[in-house]
Design a protein that fits this description.
- By secondary structure, the protein is an alpha/beta fold.
- It is about 40% helix and about 15% strand.
- The strands form 4 sheets. It has a 7-stranded mixed β-sheet, sandwiched between helices.
- Strand 1 and strand 2 form a beta hairpin.
- Helix 2 runs antiparallel to helix 10 and helix 3 runs parallel beside helix 10.
- It binds pyridoxal-5'-phosphate.
- Pyridoxal-5'-phosphate binds next to helix 4.
């Protein structure tokens, strides 16, 4: 593959953008090499500026669940922009979006639109703190909730000790308020709540971890967390920025039958435009300004073009059988990848929930963060590049989930598996 144009653009970009990109993982730092620059995207494919085509399993990191450049979404955007790009005053699309989200996610009796997943999670923990009068929050190793200060924190030396920043610029005084638990560990959660329960405002979790590869919850784990939060008066916050409308129409909370107090959204609800939202119980959401005293605002929040794109995409995912088909496609891909790896003699296991999946270079079943990080990262990086050379774009990091779209039909998935058959041979060496 020729990458001359991408290389020239990356050279220019690196002079002016930190690392040459506007979001770190795009820079290929963990897999090595240079990113390609995209010219256009359509259906399951990305096309780069050198004319190369890739089957895309990144899907703009989740939003593109109906494939790229879907005509219905494009039409909705075109229609919306005829009326103007931003009003700074209420418009009907915001009401329709709120009606749609609260209908599809019954735990959300009210919602507030924002502009990114990061804004949604930051706002949700402010609400949790404001509503409970408590300061501490609990999160999980390997979960990502955006780049807010309170989330860029790891566990201190012991599980029950105060959190420490993972990025310069995060004040230690703030990070101390974030407690970090190992995901899927029942006893650790019980012990933390027994010691700190009455100081905990809220517990935030990716119900299916999609930011440490893809790790589903153990049976009963989310129920356990629900029970602990209820017992200690802490709010259970599901971060469904990734899982929302992807693992099931009603998100992970519908899939696993849990009712969180608050939920955060992003990605799919914007149809590819910059959008986030948070919602939950009416008694909590009505404490948000101007209905209540907890402040949160946004110049572009509820933007009419973004609402139009998101609503068009939410229409498409409500088509009967949409998620069954998406899940079957993901399962077909995972089975094909496992078979291809076995053929080549490379130990690989996969995970899958609805339209998200994980690929681990290990022969163990993976359901903890420690297991995910113990996998063979060198093998993944070799596989990533071997797939890219064969026209398949996986997330450029061993710690990201894969995303299926409804545009990935059987022939696209089979082409992916064919490429993988060769790529696993490269890994085997
Ligand atoms: N929460 C989860 C689970 C995410 O995966 C992400 C981003 O990938 C975020 C929050 C942050 O969203 P954004 O990148 O839109 O700020």
């Amino acid at each position: 593959m020729n990458h001359d144009q991408s290389h020239a653009l990356f050279t220019r970009a690196q002079k002016l953008l930190p690392g040459g990109v506007n979001s770190p993982v795009r820079a290929f730092k963990s897999v090595g090499g240079e990113p390609f620059f995209v010219q256009r995207a359509d259906g399951p494919y990305l096309y780069d500026v050198d004319g190369n085509r890739y089957i895309d399993y990144v899907g703009s990191w989740g939003p593109m669940i109906v494939g790229h450049n879907h005509p219905a979404v494009r039409q909705a955007v075109k229609h919306a922009i005829n009326n103007g790009l931003s009003f700074g005053a209420p418009c009907e699309a915001e009401v329709v979006m709120a009606e749609t989200l609260t209908r599809l996610i019954p735990s959300c009796q009210m919602v507030r639109m924002v502009n990114s997943g990061t804004e949604a999670t930051l706002s949700a923990i402010r609400l949790a703190r404001g509503a409970t009068g408590r300061n501490r929050i609990v999160k999980f190793e390997g979960c990502y909730h955006g780049h807010g200060d309170s989330f860029l924190v790891k566990a201190g030396s012991g599980m029950l000790t105060l959190g420490v920043p993972t990025s310069p610029g995060v004040p230690a005084g703030l990070s101390e308020l974030t407690l970090t638990l190992p995901y899927n560990d029942f006893e650790a959660a019980t012990a933390l709540f027994a010691e700190q329960g009455e100081h905990i405002a809220g517990l935030i979790i990716e119900p299916v971890v999609g930011n440490a590869n893809c790790i589903p919850p153990r049976d009963g784990y989310l129920q356990h967390l629900r029970a602990l939060c209820t017992q200690y008066g802490a709010l259970l916050i599901f971060d469904e920025v990734m899982t929302g409308f992807r693992v099931a129409l009603g998100g992970a909370q519908a899939h696993y039958g849990i009712t969180p107090d608050l939920t955060t959204f992003g990605k799919i609800i914007g149809g590819g435009m910059p959008v986030g939202a948070y919602g939950g119980r009416a008694d909590l959401m009505s404490q948000i300004a101007p209905a209540g005293p907890i402040y949160q605002a946004g110049t572009l929040s509820g933007n009419p073009v973004a609402m139009a794109a998101g609503l068009a995409m939410l229409d498409l995912v409500q088509e009967p059988g949409f998620h069954d088909r998406l899940s079957a496609a993901s399962a077909r891909l995972c089975a094909g990848l496992e078979a291809a790896a076995a053929e080549a003699g490379v130990p690989v296991t996969t995970t899958q929930v609805g339209g998200m999946f994980g690929l681990f270079f290990t022969d163990q079943k993976v359901d903890t963060y420690a297991q995910a990080t113990a996998c063979d990262i060198t093998a993944f990086n070799t596989f990533f590049h071997a797939m890219l050379e064969r026209g398949v774009f996986l997330a450029p990091s061993a710690y990201e989930a894969g995303f299926m779209s409804s545009a990935h039909d059987d022939s696209v998935i089979d082409a992916t598996i064919d490429a993988a058959r060769e790529a696993f041979k490269v890994v085997k060496g």
